[in-house]
Each structure stands twice: as structure tokens, then as C-alpha cells.
Design goal:
Helix content is about 35%, strand content about 25%. By secondary structure, the chain is an alpha/beta fold. Helix 5 (about 140-150) runs parallel beside helix 6 (about 170-185). The longest helix is centred in the C-terminal third of the chain and has 16 residues, at about 170-185. The radius of gyration is 18 Å and the shape is globular. It binds adenosine-5'-triphosphate (ATP) and magnesium ion (MG). The site of magnesium ion has 5 residues, from helix 1.
């Protein structure tokens, strides 16, 4: 982790954020503050706007209205470089598995090879290190994308459904890796529609519905008694549209 740690980028302050496309309001006057370390989970049904919101938080999309500030300063390229994002569909380079990791390690380090091998072993991808990354299975690609994101030494990690369509073993491996990263002080903002994953990982929940954050609570309080009707229905396993 870079000097200063995650606290230097916190709080994340989002004010009256809006995003419109094709005449539709997709992110609707969203305001919230994430001030605490740990894992903040943005949860909600398909199409709620979770992926769009995460892109806005990382500065990959320009908001139509409102502001995103990290550590008391408007989001800029310098703040973005201190963050890493893992996408819903893993984005890998047209290189070998090892090449994807080596690319993000600092050029100057003379222990780069050893670092790269250690990262690949930890991700369970050492055997496949010479293969083109695009030949990995979906779950392996996601593990590589996460390992690469962590190898950049971010202070904040933004994850969009990192375990969608992965089996329970791969999901467990990724969740364990995230727990370890959290324990070492990394701030994590994780988007998921998976209730089980939210229960296992979240320190706090932001529940999203139709482009709005309808509630934000510590995870234990949220699961004991969601405040909004939409979240109550979702937690009860009812279909929420
Ligand atoms: N660039 C865009 N232009 C127009 N509409 C878009 C654009 N990007 C997303 N949308 C729409 O915005 C809505 C929210 O999309 P988003 O991908 O953020 O949902 P989500 O909550 O991440 O859903 P899922 O759980 O399925 O991943 C969807 O109805 C989607 O079709
Ligand atoms: Mg999404």
C-alpha cells in the first residue's frame, strides 16, 4: 500500500450525483459518504445502476450532475492512480498470465521475477503462468484480474461483481483474498447482487434501487432490519424490480 494508507483517500463523498443517457435518468441524485475502512458493499437488483455508479466513483464516466470527492478533494487522475478496479467481465492484456502481473510491477525492482511468481502462486495460477491469459477459464481470469489489481498496491479497491458466474470454490478463494486485503488496511468498495456474499463480507451496506441509494447502514443492522421497503423485500428473497 502506498504511503498514507486508505485513510488518505477517505472519506469518499458523493453529492447529488446524476447520470443520464438516452433521455433516461440512470443515476438519480445519489448522495452518500463512505468514511470507515473495511468493506462497503453496494447491493441491489440487476439494472439498479450499480456498475454505472462504480464507474462514476472511479472517474471512468463523467457525471451529468453532482460531485465525487476522495479525501476531501475532487476526483482526479492522481486519486484514480491510487485505486484499482476489477470489472464485472475481467479485462486482461493480450499477454501471458505472468505477463499480465509483470506489467504492473515497478520496473526498478530487481526481485520482480520472484514477486511475480509469488503473486501467481497465491492466486493459484502458477502452473498456467506461460499460457496466454485469454485461454484461462472465466474463474481463473477473474482471479488473475484481482491479483493484478492488488499487485498495483492500491489504497482503494473497487470491485464489480467479482464472483458472478464463479463456482463456490473460486468464490471462496476470492473472498478469502479480499478478507486478507481488508485486514491489511485496504479499503474495498464491492458491488454485488449476491445476498450471501454481502452477508459474508460487508461491514456496511448501501442498497441501490432504480438509480438511487435508498439506504445505508452497518451490515449487522441492515440484515437485522432493513429500513426501506425495497431492501426488506430483497433480503426476504422477494423479486424486486
Ligand atoms: N452507457 C449507457 N447508455 C445507456 N444506458 C445504459 C448505459 N450503461 C448502462 N445503461 C443502463 O443503465 C441501467 C443500469 O445499468 P448498470 O449496468 O449500472 O446496472 P447494474 O446494477 O450494474 O446491473 P447488474 O446487476 O445486472 O450488473 C441499465 O438499465 C442499463 O441498461
Ligand atoms: Mg453491473
Amino acid at each position: 500500500m502506498a504511503a498514507g494508507g486508505a485513510s488518505a483517500l477517505l472519506p469518499l463523498e458523493v453529492a447529488s450525483l446524476g447520470f443520464t443517457a438516452g433521455g433516461e435518468t440512470l443515476i438519480d441524485r445519489v448522495s452518500f459518504v463512505i468514511a470507515e475502512p473495511g468493506i462497503s458493499v453496494i447491493m441491489g437488483p440487476n439494472g439498479a445502476g450499480k456498475s454505472l455508479l462504480l464507474r462514476l466513483l472511479h472517474g471512468l464516466l463523467e457525471p451529468g450532475a453532482g460531485t465525487v470527492a476522495w479525501g476531501g478533494r475532487p476526483l482526479d487522475a492522481a486519486a484514480r492512480r491510487r485505486q484499482a478496479m476489477v470489472f464485472q467481465k475481467p479485462v486482461l492484456m493480450r499477454r501471458s498470465v505472468a505477463g499480465n502481473i509483470d506489467f504492473v510491477l515497478p520496473r526498478r525492482r530487481d526481485d520482480r521475477r520472484a514477486r511475480c511468481d509469488a503473486i501467481l502462486r497465491e492466486a493459484g495460477l502458477y502452473r498456467q503462468r506461460r499460457q496466454p491469459a485469454r485461454l484461462l477459464s472465466g474463474g481463473e481470469q477473474q482471479r488473475l484480474a484481482l491479483a493484478r489489481a492488488l499487485a498495483t498496491g492500491p489504497e482503494v479497491l473497487l470491485l464489480d461483481e467479482p464472483c458472478a458466474s464463479l463456482d463456490s470454490g473460486t468464490t471462496l478463494a476470492i473472498e478469502n483474498r479480499l478478507q486478507a486485503a481488508r485486514a491489511s488496511g485496504l479499503k474495498i468498495v464491492l458491488v454485488t447482487h449476491d445476498l450471501g456474499q454481502a452477508r459474508r463480507l460487508a461491514d456496511e451496506i448501501l442498497f441501490m434501487h432504480r438509480g438511487r441509494i435508498v439506504e445505508q447502514q452497518p451490515a449487522a443492522a441492515f440484515f437485522a432490519a432493513p429500513r426501506s421497503a425495497e431492501a426488506r423485500a430483497y433480503v426476504a428473497g422477494k423479486i424486486v424490480l
